[in-house]
Amino acid sequence: MDIIPTIKQACKKYGNDRGRLIDILWEVQNSLGCINEEAMGLIASEIKSHRVEIEGLVSFYSFFSDRQKGKIIIRLCDDIIDRHAGIERIADIFSEELGIGIGETSPDLNFSLEYTPCIGMSDQAPAALINNVVVTNLTPDSARETARQLKKTLDPSKLVTKCGDGNNAHKLVNAMVQNNIRQKGEVLLADGIPAEAGLDNALKKASLDVIQAITDSGLRGRGGAGFPTGEKLRLAQKTEATQRFIICNADEGEPGTFKDRVLLTERASLVFEGMTIAAYAIGSNSGILYLRAEYAYLRPFLESVLENRRKTGLLGKDVRGKKGFDFDIRIQLGAGAYICGEESALISSCEGLRGEPKNRPPFPVEKGYLSKPTAVNNVETFCCIARILDKGASWFAGIGTKASHGTKLLSVCGDCAKPGIYEVPYGIGIDELLKMVEADDPAIVQVGGASGEMVGRTSFGRKICFSDAATGGAVMVFSSHRNVLAIVDYFLEFFADESCGYCTPCRIGIVFLRERIQKVMHGFAEDADLGYLKDLCKTIMMTSRCGLGSSAPKSILNSIERFPLVYSSHLKESKDGFQASFNIQKALDESRRLAKRTSMIYDPVYEDEAD
Amino acid sequence: MKKRIATVSLAGCFGCHMSLLDIDERILELVKLVEFDRSPINDFKKFRARCDIGFVEGGCCNEENVHTLRDFRKNCDVLVGVGQCAVMGGLPVMRNAIMHSDDPLRECLETAYLNSPYVYNPANDIPNDPALPLILDKVYTCSEVVKMDYHIPGCPPSGDVLWQTIVALLSGNPSDLPGEIIKFD
Amino acid sequence: MDKIIIRIDGAEIKGKPGQTIMQAADDAGIHIPRLCDVEGLEPQGSCRVCTVKVNGRTAASCTQPVADGMEVENDTLEIRNYRRDLVRMLFHEGNHLCPCCEASGRCELQNLAYQLGILQPDKYPYLQPVRPVDASHPDVMLDTNRCIRCGRCIRASIQLDHKNVFGYIGRGINKQVGVNGKNLAQTNVDIHDKAVALGTCPVGCIIQKRAGFFDPIGKRRFDLHPAGTKVEDS
């Protein structure tokens, strides 16, 4: 097959712009089923890049592949919640029905089966992405039925039989996803939020007054880090520049988080309104919504919302009739990389680079996207901005606690009867939340996802807010029959897979942490190994380049401190000084098979002489 | 009372033992301080009494190495890994580089005895006498098999390094272990 | 803000605007250990060996700009421990068989281990990677099992040779240096490129063929300038 026209067309569509490499690669992969070596070379020459750079990207993002994949890619969600919900059994069934193992592609190139980290459906686990179709609440029976139907129709879109609630049923979304909104608060999910009220108020003010209002409201970033939003906008605004950018971070990759999914589904216009207000405030004419690839099913709908806003003068030239305020938004699709949730990595990704964090300083507000001042905020933060400009700073500041203002959208999942979305004022107690979600036997609450904090039973009185148990939205509930070490091991596996590999401690240290945790799990570790773990955690946290490395060890430190009995019950002192992890029988198996004889030393016949 | 010392070479080349001879005339001082128990130096093949210090050269590539190393761990108060092979596998560990093969051990043996261009093996067989210890699936460092108290890197560690190590350990002052003269090659 | 005074371990030194802590320290003759940073290339901040504490918070001194009044901790027990751990990690990540490596004696990783007093190199498990060696090119060889991902070859190729022979591929523990082609022979690398010049690769990953083991033991780069001296002096 001559692939040159396809490549040329894909590159041309994005103006042969090296900065739009992610889009180009998507385009090529969608047409060819992969980005192979030949394609890499061709793309490189079209956009005046280098093959190794293209390979660098393809090998960085997990949704890109250099090997031919099946027409239908089944990505099973492999987060801890889905594991607890039985994803392994589901995987076995798909494997059985399709005749391929995990990571394999069927010889007829119809199917690929793989695991992927959290796809943002933990409230309806086990779930899977089949191309862009989301299937949720899988059971062994429904998985078998799904696989058989796919074999028959080879068309994932035919799987959609019954749409979810709200905009999930919109014809451009057409998804079986449920919103699972369990509690609406007054800021984000309230009914009857007036459209563009915030934007209209903002445009009546001077841009600095808009920033002031946001500062006065006490709004802090909703993504997890909690940086004061007004301050961020002020810094971006005051940096001398010919152009500034607004970026909305919809790369919701933290395991157990799915609140942005619901906002993008039900409050898309509000998100864009917030972005427009922020653009007006800092003097930006261009915005990007960075949408994680797992949420690609929302893209046509979001594009239509943007198109509508353009048509009605809410985007484009002289927004809402405001002379001189031009602003438009494009959607940048991600390609499967948790690290891109980190703002400078996200900017790298928008620039068509490997999604690696940038050196700071300079910070994005000084030197961000295309080296211009850039304000990157979370989806929820932009919604809050629009609401603050509508209802006023003091209204917002009046909700929540003294230091944590407003409401927080929590995505609760795990061992509870009512997983889903809860909009609660800051300061809610974990115990109170557990009652709301009807968790009858909670033993561990993981606040803030894999990079968050592990809270044990004795601390359920703690409050969810910036100064206590902080979270970007994820709350995972684990009941007493869950294995703490398996949870920790999962988190480490996740971080090891998602580390960009840029800096030494994160790239290597996390692998070592996991090796030792597994040693503990298997009962091969001793007391001294806890000291080793703590020591290694400290080095990784202190020397890592970005937040991924510095938060990856948290679950180990938390669990050692808060669940000491779990560890001590697994630790065994070696009496003979032998390493319990070394298994001589296993080490000899292969040799016995090849030599077709038994061991003179270690086989039972010679037991008397064995050591 | 004289301290008892045992030494052994596992998957090593005896270079570290040769290096021990490089302490030259200090060996006279050494025999005043220690008595050699199990060691190739006196050809004692079994422990005669519990030892204060065991020096282990080489890592583990077969079952006999594992058996011996465990025997050393059982019979020595302090176990010292001597040389790169004991510390990190050394040259023998290069065979672990074929672990990506589907059948690594077979590939290893066939390369060594049959397929390598430098092999002359008219009988075309891989040695498999029952007296030969079974080879392990890969080469293990000493620390992977038993707990080691100290490691002296080097290929081999120089006579001076070994001498300083012995003196430091005999005097019960591990903080005097050689520092600046340590090399990895 | 022309006058920038910072203190490194209590010693007052002068910095210039736009300088990094590392550059200011170098100018003042204070040595901060490093691997990925080398004079003549843009700093990358990836090995983290140059980690220092700035006003109580850790930062990579090769990328952190100086600011007036900074209190920098460099040669403290805590920092030395971090550095030791990082150097150990790099040793354990790859296959660093010093006895049979051409770079032994001129290897910055090895020298740094000596400098930091890593005498018991068995703290971590050995990962023993099994990547194929690229010996396709007539003059240059690549053994990425010894690579420490410092990116000096990548930056030298881009910034000095204007060639892009090397680039990062993969991520996480699988992140490695790739070449701009199927193998080295298919790239436009030249033996005279800075990217493959002796001293660009701090370890034995990039090897010039027929040039190994020329210096006898005792006469090699770091044999002559033993541990503790400034890396870039030698």
Walkthrough of the structure:
Helices cover 41% and strands 13% of the residues of chain A. Chain A has 611 residues and is of the alpha/beta class. Chain A has 6 domains: 4-58, no CATH class; 75-161, Glutaredoxin; 183-397, NADH-ubiquinone oxidoreductase 51kDa subunit (Rossmann fold); 407-482, Roll (Ubiquitin-like (UB roll)); 485-570, Up-down Bundle (de novo design (two linked rop proteins)), CATH 1.20.1440.230; 581-611, no CATH class. In chain A, the strands form 4 sheets. Chain A has a 6-stranded mixed beta sheet with strand order 6-12-11-17-14-15. In chain A, strands 2-3-1-4-5 form a 5-stranded mixed beta sheet, covered by helices on one side. A 4-stranded parallel beta sheet of chain A has the order 9-8-7-10, with helices on both faces. The longest helix of chain A is centred in the last third of the chain and has 18 residues, at 504-521. The N and C termini of chain A lie far apart (64 Å). Chain B has 185 residues and is α/β, with parallel strands linked by helices. Chain B has one domain: Rossmann fold (3-Layer(aba) Sandwich), CATH 3.40.50.700. In chain B, 33% of the residues lie in helices and 19% in strands. Chain B is built from 7 helices and 7 strands. Chain B has helices at 15-21, 26-33, 63-75, 84-88, 104-115, 142-145, 159-170; strands at 3-9, 34-36, 51-57, 60-62, 76-82, 135-140, 150-152. In chain B, strands 2-1-3-5-7 form a 5-stranded parallel beta sheet, with helices on both faces. Chain B has a two-stranded antiparallel sheet with strand order 4-6. The mean pLDDT of chain B is 93. Chain C has 234 residues and is α+β, with helices and mostly antiparallel strands. Chain C is built from 5 helices and 9 strands, in the order E-E-H-E-E-E-H-H-E-H-E-E-E-H. In chain C, the strands form 3 sheets. A 5-stranded mixed beta sheet of chain C has the order 2-1-5-3-4, with helices on both faces. Chain C has a two-stranded antiparallel sheet with strand order 6-9. Chain C has a two-stranded antiparallel ribbon with strand order 7-8. Mean pLDDT of chain C is 93; it is low at 229-234. Chains in contact: A-B, A-C, B-C. The interface between A and C is large, with 37 and 44 residues.
